[in-house]
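[Discussion] Sanity-checking designs against the backbone

I'm trying to build intuition for which residues belong where. Below is a structure token string of 529 positions. I'd appreciate it if someone posts a full sequence so I can compare it with mine line by line.
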């Protein structure tokens, strides 16, 4: 095959791919939307319900035992399927704020984001945080306003909130005809057609082509009151609303908005088809060698997540790897840049949550799972040819701390293995005391992480742990050539992280400020040096 033919094939593969994350506040319906998208992609036959704890069917993207019990997502999942000539990679992120660190890192692997908003609650706290991360990266954001079949807020009010709270302009691609019990459909502003709402039976979409929103067909379908309301609202949008500008969408300055109800399958397929047309194909990433484009001929990529025990029967660890450029081939040798050695990628996998298939080839934008015998860390770069190091992934300073001990001393080996593997995933950080008896301290961003840690240590390693809460609220990495440990005695404690960096834990801001004043030559960093 000629080089040009190879290039053409590569360009075609890149163009096919859409890699995006779904972001929202807990309970906005994110896992349900993910399920329905997978359903359209033929990846699952029956979408699982999330909350029904006694139901035998659980959401495909919530694979961990604790997630099935609680009905929440606590890890990021990756799912891949094909739809209408596109290869779709969905990064489903935990909405719970206690797992925001995992989510932030996952967002670095996405090329666009789908922001899910509850029509009754509008923009919530966690959505705002996640939006800010996307906004900093300048990635396109597509909005799905969910739960239109329930009583919610006025659509104009919701659009206004997007602008006032998030600072992003919006362009409604469709518009609801009624809401809650009165919902009877949505009017597609782009295709001038009406998609009918049929309650919970949306196995097939019913679409009625119309000449415009004044069409009498809508009056017959919706009744006089809703027909008049739709006229007024759409005329107002046409006159006062933002114009559609695709360049602004790509820069993350304008968000296309879709209305629907994920649980009823209403508006989801229309959203998916529009999204795949509008969302960008894989983008470049910043590195030590400048921007690396997907068309760069060397193979490059980075690890953005590590997950232990995806298959508890095999006690395995998987490194989630985003391909930035080049073609991946099973068994290929690559340079592990941080370790400075060549490694062979022998067991690469692609995902449908915890279901995995061995993959022979993959392209820029794809997420593959690399079997990790303990050689990878979050942020590691792999490449062929030039040694390319991608920009560091964000890490966050923990805010809650607990001393951890083991109930049964005979299980010390399993205990150390469990702590080591679960802290490698990055959601829990481990510290060791520096004076006297070596004690282990865990640091997390949110309380739920402690509960998940306890649960997983017991279910995956057979170890019962005891967590003793400590009064500290802040952690700062201390860099100083002449560090004096005696300066950390009152309302503070000096510990070491996994890499033997010094970390000071403080009970309050006053204690932290005092230490900084006493040690003017030291640097106090919020993230590891």
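Best answer:
Here's mine. Compare freely.
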């Amino acid at each position: 095959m000629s080089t040009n033919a190879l290039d053409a094939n590569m360009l075609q593969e890149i163009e096919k791919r859409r890699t995006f994350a779904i972001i929202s506040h807990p309970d906005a319906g994110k896992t349900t939307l993910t399920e329905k998208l997978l359903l359209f992609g033929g990846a699952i036959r029956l979408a699982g319900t999330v909350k029904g704890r006694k139901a035998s069917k659980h959401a495909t993207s919530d694979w961990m035992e604790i997630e099935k019990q609680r009905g929440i997502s606590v890890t990021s999942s990756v799912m891949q399927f094909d739809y209408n000539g596109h290869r779709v990679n969905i990064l489903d992120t935990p909405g719970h704020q206690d797992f925001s660190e995992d989510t932030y890192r996952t967002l670095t692997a996405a090329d666009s984001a789908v922001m899910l908003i509850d029509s009754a609650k509008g923009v919530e706290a966690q959505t705002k945080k996640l939006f800010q991360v996307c906004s900093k990266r300048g990635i396109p954001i597509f909005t799905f306003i969910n739960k239109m079949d329930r009583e919610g807020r006025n659509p104009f009010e919701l659009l206004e909130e997007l602008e006032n709270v998030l600072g992003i302009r919006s362009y409604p691609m469709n518009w609801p005809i009624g809401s809650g019990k009165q919902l009877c459909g949505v009017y597609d502003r782009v295709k001038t057609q009406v998609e009918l709402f049929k309650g919970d039976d949306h196995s097939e979409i019913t679409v009625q082509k119309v000449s415009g929103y004044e069409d009498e067909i809508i009056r017959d379908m919706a009744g006089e009151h809703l027909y008049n309301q739709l006229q007024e609202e759409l005329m107002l949008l046409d006159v006062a609303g933002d114009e559609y500008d695709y360049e602004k969408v790509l820069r993350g300055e304008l968000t296309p908005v879709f209305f629907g109800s994920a649980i009823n399958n209403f508006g989801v397929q229309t959203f998916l088809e529009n999204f795949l047309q509008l969302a960008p194909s894989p983008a470049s990433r910043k590195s030590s060698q400048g921007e690396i484009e997907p068309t760069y001929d060397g193979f490059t990529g980075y690890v953005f997540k590590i997950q232990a025990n995806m298959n508890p029967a095999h006690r395995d660890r998987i490194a989630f790897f985003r391909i930035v450029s080049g073609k991946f081939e099973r068994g290929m040798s690559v340079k592990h840049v941080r370790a400075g050695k060549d490694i062979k990628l022998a067991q690469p996998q692609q995902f449908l949550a915890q279901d995995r298939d061995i993959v022979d080839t993959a392209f820029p934008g794809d997420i593959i799972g690399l079997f990790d015998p303990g050689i990878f860390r979050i942020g590691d770069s792999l490449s062929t040819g030039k040694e390319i190091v991608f920009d560091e992934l964000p890490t966050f300073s923990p805010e809650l701390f607990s001393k951890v001990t083991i109930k049964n001393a005979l299980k010390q080996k399993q205990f150390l293995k469990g702590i080591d593997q679960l802290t490698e995933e990055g959601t829990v950080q481990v510290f060791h005391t520096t004076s006297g008896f070596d004690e282990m301290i865990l640091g997390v961003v949110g309380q739920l992480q402690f509960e998940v840690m306890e649960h997983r240590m017991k279910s995956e390693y057979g170890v019962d742990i005891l967590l003793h809460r400590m009064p500290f609220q802040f952690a700062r990495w201390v860099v100083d050539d002449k560090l004096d440990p005696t300066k950390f005695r009152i309302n503070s404690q000096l510990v070491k992280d996994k890499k033997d960096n010094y970390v000071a834990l403080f009970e309050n801001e006053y204690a932290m400020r005092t230490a900084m004043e006493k040690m003017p030559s030291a640097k106090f960093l919020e993230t590891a040096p």
